[in-house]
Design a protein that fits this description.
Number of strands: 36
Radius of gyration: 27 Å
Shape: globular
Bound molecules: alpha-L-arabinofuranose
Structural class: alpha/beta
Strand content: 25-35%
Number of helices: 11
Low-confidence stretches: 1-24
Helix content: 10-25%
């Protein structure tokens, strides 16, 4: 819906090529009859990391923060309340019961005949509710007095305390049980709360309180936020890299991502702190935890749902080198390698295997078809190479079919980078993951970075990139048009070199408007809405116009990578039999270009061109003006072997012509 709302303001301007009047254009040749290289089906993908409240408080649709009282501060997000003169004697307990997934529970004891007493949850910077939509509330509770069945009143309230809907859970018995009711708020509210109350005298003990919209992605119970997944699906990504990023590494090894703790019954997944919580002191989010409701099974399912290859990244025995750099002793590395082997079994193994059986029991007997895996995230130094070697030999011996992604470190040049590359070439690595968070001018300058890369040896995975007009985590930094335009120019260079660069993903993907740590990000959201940035539309334009193989676009026999402020690449889509031309104009002026096509001539036709443009390089998509920059569709008439085309200043253009 959001996607529809935002763009395709279709401009049916039928521009006849001979009507274009601008300064004389020198000829650009598109060599349609010379296939250069195949475009990998997973060329343009996405990188999901649980940063900026991307998982809990974001795409994972749970609306209750600290639903099982398992945060370090067990009542974080909760407050004891009473209403209408109610009184209480309330406690937090730890049962130590090894048979229960949660040891902690609260005991609400309402001591007065009048009014009510209980708890209120603030959600993730509020609870986002939509008028008349259904919300499924699940409470795991028991009666605090074993002789009397107890009742609870649950209510959704707005920020003034006005009740938006309420319901009663009655007949709560002395044993732990799950109780479920549906609530339907009478108005939309982005910062509502949930109250759980005992009315009159009574005692109820509660282990977990959970609230999900009924409308989740594919209607899955306890699933994902459908508007956010839809935006990802609309990009048609070739792969999903998950779950990080530095999340994989942890600040120290204890807080690293361990996939085995994120599968099986969500209620039994052990919660840990999110390492981004206080990373940036000026963007501190001490209430940031990982419930793992979105765990590895759900990541695989998400990838499958949106037609993308799963690309899990695993810890390689190293914690984040920007934090503790804690290392696992080489002699203790085996369990880490075993995790990698077991993950392949979880994804691809027969249902009779230990991990394949778990996958089947979770609802997916068919394999997930895992083809690749990352060993470490942004690691560097000889410690990395030493550990990777061990992973490499174990994994290649048992699973030669799985391609391994290796690290080029945190920056796209320098000593660490060169050292890793030299070593990884010697090891004949499958893929090297290069990261670049750089200025827009770096991206423009590097649009021809890969033209001179060796054609043999490891392939490139541009696993994390974004143009930053300002420093990282700068609150005033924006996903502005300047950054998106620079990324688009750079991406023409990635596409032109797709024999070497075979996978690419922008980073980070998602950010909560009120709880982010890292800025800029591809998609911003609050508790009700999502705003795709101009950078999102650039990614979408490239991914939805991938084509099957590249052909050369040349001016004066040279690739077009910045000369006269133009960047260009072209592919042929074998299925639709179209040539796809990508043209980026970074000058503020309208520019006319004359194209001549060799090897094919076009029948007279109305071709379509998707355009992103804005005169103002500081323009961005805000919550109050979310569709400021979006894709417009222009039509133009084409025939014969040549085309005179005029493209707007500061624009990204994707032209498709039927062959
Ligand atoms: O994308 C944000 C962070 O940037 C990632 O976690 C890390 O890999 C990189 O340093």
């Amino acid at each position: 819906m959001i996607a529809k709302r935002f763009f395709y303001s279709i401009i049916s301007c039928f521009l006849f090529f001979n009507l274009v009047r601008a300064q004389p254009a020198s000829e650009i040749k598109v060599l349609l009859n010379q296939r250069v290289s195949a475009v990998s089906t997973s060329m343009w993908g996405i990188f999901f990391e649980d940063i900026n409240f991307a998982a809990d408080g974001g795409i994972y649709a749970e609306l209750i923060k600290n639903r099982s009282f398992n945060f370090n501060d067990p009542l974080m997000g909760w407050t004891w309340i009473n209403k209408d003169g109610g009184k209480g004697d309330n406690r937090l307990y730890n049962s130590g019961d090894m048979l229960r997934p949660n040891k902690r529970y609260v005991r609400i004891q309402s001591t007065s005949d009048n009014g009510s007493n209980g708890l209120s949850n603030e959600g993730f910077r509020g609870i986002g509710l939509k008028k008349d939509a259904g919300y499924r509330l699940t409470v795991t509770a028991r009666s605090g007095d074993s002789n009397i069945a107890a009742n609870l009143v649950v209510e959704l309230v707005d920020s003034t305390g006005k009740v938006l809907d309420e319901n009663q859970i009655s007949g709560i018995t002395k044993d732990w049980n799950k109780y479920e009711v549906i609530l339907k708020p009478i108005k939309t509210d982005a910062s509502a709360r949930l109250n759980v109350l005992v009315k009159g005298k009574g005692v109820v003990e509660i282990e977990t309180v959970s609230l999900f919209p009924v409308d989740t992605w594919k209607g899955r119970k306890n699933g994902l936020r459908s508007d956010l997944v839809q935006l990802l699906a609309d990009m048609k990504p070739g792969f999903v890299r998950f779950p990080g990023g530095c999340i994989v590494e942890g600040r120290e090894l204890a807080s690293r991502y361990q996939w085995k703790k994120t599968v099986g019954d969500p209620a039994e997944r052990e919660l840990i702190v999110n390492r981004w919580n206080t990373e940036f002191k000026h963007r501190s989010t001490p209430d940031y935890f990982q419930s793992f409701g979105l765990g590895f099974y759900e990541y695989f399912l998400l990838s499958e749902d949106i037609g993308a290859e799963p690309l899990p990244i695993l810890n390689c025995g190293m914690a984040c080198q920007y934090n503790t750099s804690e290392l696992v002793d080489m002699k203790d590395l085996d369990p880490y390698i075993q995790d990698a082997l077991d993950l392949i079994e979880f994804a691809n193994g027969a249902v009779a295997t230990q991990w394949g059986k778990l996958r089947a029991s979770m609802g997916h007997p068919e394999p997930f078809n895992l083809k690749m895996m990352g060993v470490g995230n942004e690691q560097w130094g000889p410690q990395y190479i030493e550990r990777f070697k061990k992973f490499n030999s174990a994994l290649k011996e048992k699973h030669p079919e799985i391609k391994l992604i290796t690290s080029a470190g945190p920056s796209p040049e320098g000593d660490r980078f060169t050292y890793l590359w030299d070593e990884l070439v010697k090891l004949n690595a499958d893929f090297v993951d290069e990261h670049y968070y750089q200025t827009p001018s770096w991206f423009l300058k590097n649009a021809s970075r890969y033209d001179a890369y060796p054609r043999k040896g490891p392939k490139i995975f541009a696993g994390e990139y974004a143009a930053h007009s300002k420093g990282q985590a700068d609150p005033t930094s924006r996903n502005n048009w300047e950054s998106a335009l620079a990324e688009a120019a750079f991406m023409t260079g990635l596409e032109r070199n797709c024999d070497v660069v075979q996978m690419c993903s922008y980073a980070p993907l998602l950010a909560h408007k009120d709880a982010w740590q890292w800025n800029p990000d591809l998609i911003w959201f609050d508790n009700l809405n999502a705003v795709p940035t101009p950078n999102y539309f650039v990614q979408k334009l490239f991914a939805t116009n991938k084509g099957s193989y590249t052909v050369s676009v040349l001016k004066d026999k040279e690739v077009i990578a910045g000369k006269d402020s133009i960047y260009a690449s072209a592919t042929i889509d074998e299925k639709s039999k179209e040539v796809i031309l990508k043209l980026v104009n970074i000058s503020p002026r309208k520019t006319s270009m004359k194209f001549s096509f060799t090897g094919e001539s076009f029948k007279s036709q109305n071709a379509s061109m998707e355009v992103l443009k804005n005169k103002d390089l500081t323009a961005w998509n805000s919550f109050s003006n979310p569709s400021n920059i979006g894709i417009e569709l222009q039509k133009l008439k084409v025939s014969g072997r040549s085309l005179l085309l005029s493209i707007d200043g500061n624009s990204v253009n994707v032209l498709r012509i039927k062959l």
